[in-house]
Amino acid sequence: MNSSLRILSLITALSLFSLSVTAAPLYRFIDEDGTTTLSRSLPPHIAPKGYDILDENTMRLIERVPPVLTEAERAEQQRLEREAAAQRAEAELSAREAAEARRLQRIYDRNLLSTYQSEAELISVRDTDLQHRQQRIERLQATLPKLENQLREQQRLAAESELSGRPVSDNLKRRISALEQEINHNQVTIANQQNELEQLELQYETERLRLLELLAIRNDN
C-alpha cells in the first residue's frame, strides 16, 4: 500500500512538473477598449503599448515590458532623468557643504574658546589692536600735507621755468613724479588700512557675540 502511494505521488509530481515546464506564457495587456486582457498570444499592434508576461499555472508575473516611447516621450524622459540627477547632485553637494561648514564651525569655536577666557579679555585685545592700527593710519595721514606742500613747490618751480621760456629740467620732472607717486601710494594705503580696520571691527564683534554664546553653553553644562 505504501509503495503504491509513493508511486502515485511520484507520478503526480512529475505531471505537475511537466505541466509547469511545458506551459506557454500568458500575456496580460490593455486592449483597444481599455480592457485588461489575458491571452496566450500577443497581438503585434499591442506590443509597443507594453504588456506583462505571466506564468500560466501560478499567474505569477515573470516580466513587465514597458511601452515603447515615442521620440518626444523619450526626450522628455531623458530630460526628467537629467533633472533628477542634477537635483541629487545638488542635494549631495549641499549636504557636503553643510557638513564642512559644521566642521569648520567646530574648529572656529575651539580656537575662540582657547584664545579668550572671557568677553573682557576679547574686548581688551580688540581695543589694543584697533588702536595700534588707527595710529598707523594717522601717521600716514600726517605725511600727506607735507608731501602735498612739496609737490606744490616743485610744480611752482616748473611753472616758473615754463613762463620764463626755459625747459623744465629732467631732475625737476623726476621730483614731481616721485612726489605724485608717493602721495598716491600713501592715499591708497590709507584707504586699504581704513577698510581693513572696519572689517576687523566687524570680525571682533562677531567673535564677541559667538564667544558669549559658547560661554553660556559651557556654563549651562
In short:
With 221 residues, the chain is α+β, with helices and mostly antiparallel strands. It is built from 4 helices and 4 strands. A hairpin with a 5-residue loop joins strand 1 and strand 2.
Task: Tell me what the structure shows.
- With 221 residues, this protein is of the alpha+beta class.
- The chain folds into three domains: 2-65, no CATH class; 70-115; 118-220.
- It contains four helices and four strands.
- It has a four-stranded antiparallel β-sheet with strand order 2-1-3-4, with no helix packed on it.
- A hairpin with a 5-residue loop joins strand 1 (26-30) and strand 2.
- It is elongated.
- The two termini are 83 Å apart.
Core attributes:
alpha+beta; 221 residues; signal; coiled coil; four-stranded antiparallel β-sheet
User: What is the percent of helical residues?
Assistant: over 70%
Radius of gyration: 44 Å
Q: How many beta-strand runs?
A: 4
Number of structural units classed as domains: 3
Give the biggest sheet. Answer: 4 strands, antiparallel
Estimate what percentage of residues fall within beta strands: 5-15%
Overall geometry: elongated
Number of helices: 4
Largest beta sheet: strand ordering: 2-1-3-4
CA(first)-CA(last) distance: 83 Å
Elements, N to C (H/E) = HEEEEHHH
Helix/sheet category: alpha+beta
Overall pLDDT: 89
Low-pLDDT stretches are 16-21
Would you spell out the secondary-structure blueprint of this structure?
Elements: H1 2-22, E1 26-30, E2 36-39, E3 51-54, E4 61-65, H2 71-115, H3 119-163, H4 170-220
Antiparallel strand pairs: 1-2, 1-3, 3-4
Helix pairs in contact: 3-4
Keywords: Coiled coil, Signal
Signal peptide: 1-23
Coiled coil: 70-97, 130-217
